[in-house]
Amino acid sequence: MSRFPIDPTSILIDLIRCPSVTPREAGALDALDAALAPLGFTVERPTFHEAGAADVENLFARRGSSGPHLVFAGHTDVVPPGEAGAWRFPPFAGEIADGALYGRGAVDMKGGIACFVAAVARIVDADGDLPGQVSLLITGDEEGPAVNGTVKLLDWARARGERFDACVVGEPTNPDAMGDMIKVGRRGSLSATLTVAGRQGHVAYPHLADNPVRGLVTLLDALMAEPLDAGSERFQPSNLEVTTIDVGNPSTNVIPAEAKAGFNIRFNDRWSVASLKAEIERRLAEAARDLRLRPGKDAPVRYDLVWRSPASDAFFTSDAPLTQTLSDAIEAVTGRRPALSTSGGTSDARFIKDHCPVVEFGLVGQTMHMVDECVALADLESLTRIYETFIRGWFRARA
What we know:
The protein is α+β, with helices and mostly antiparallel strands. Helices cover 29% and strands 25% of the residues.
């Protein structure tokens, strides 16, 4: 019997039983630390701070001191479980039934972490060592604002002299079955709050007031009416979505003094953060002069635009040896050749791409963030074998 934690299911159960709803650590990093220590990892757990955001504890673990450096990135924080009574089993119990393990974070993404640790353990158990350096970058701030997590952990590691040659992020990337898809890039993300100033008054006397909702509708129409683009060779079209509108007005006979809207843009490589900001600002400035919804007014809409952080550019990983080695490992284990995709949302890969080539591959994502989130035990074994095969192949290719 191995003295190492080579079973991903047991590692995952320990992680799920820690109710690490973002940004709480709740023992999840303790459980991971306990799994890594027997494997010879040096573990450090820096906590980062920023005004207006919760302190977040993170984990950096490294094994080896020379040779090529492969890093695995992930997060132990999870989204809230919602109504616990709606779950088949308590969301943090880590129960097994019908060949699946249930619990918040089973797929997104404690499962990926458990499989990577088990994969490294199997290699160390069989070979006694690794032909290079392997590290884990684990945050507790991916499901939150992403302020005190991976971006600061990467800067912390760089300041200490750490350099990475390639990274795999263990997010759930497969739509339907193991081996479906590798994420080799992501669209960028840009958020803002738009505030329109008006003049409060009685709804029966609109000429004495200036309804900010009219101005806000005009500005939002200008942002959404014309598509930003039709997509690019590697990416789907950019899209702007209004995510909130608020006037803070409980009365139906009072014209409000102010109206706000929040929006997020997921954009492709036809734009940079800078060029997209310029386009949005151009559209707003032009629309502010449109008085069609504001009869009797002769002044432009008064508005304020505040860009939110963090913002990230679209990226595409063109590191052929990285994607080729991972694709080969997936095909060897599952028999499927994965699609190389840039679809979907964003992840902490948007920060890692500034430090080294990065791809994403993990479990099947069908139940992530849902009631009864669960992972098939067979998928845990498959992902562990894929990671094990990939790690061996990646180091072999760099020998």
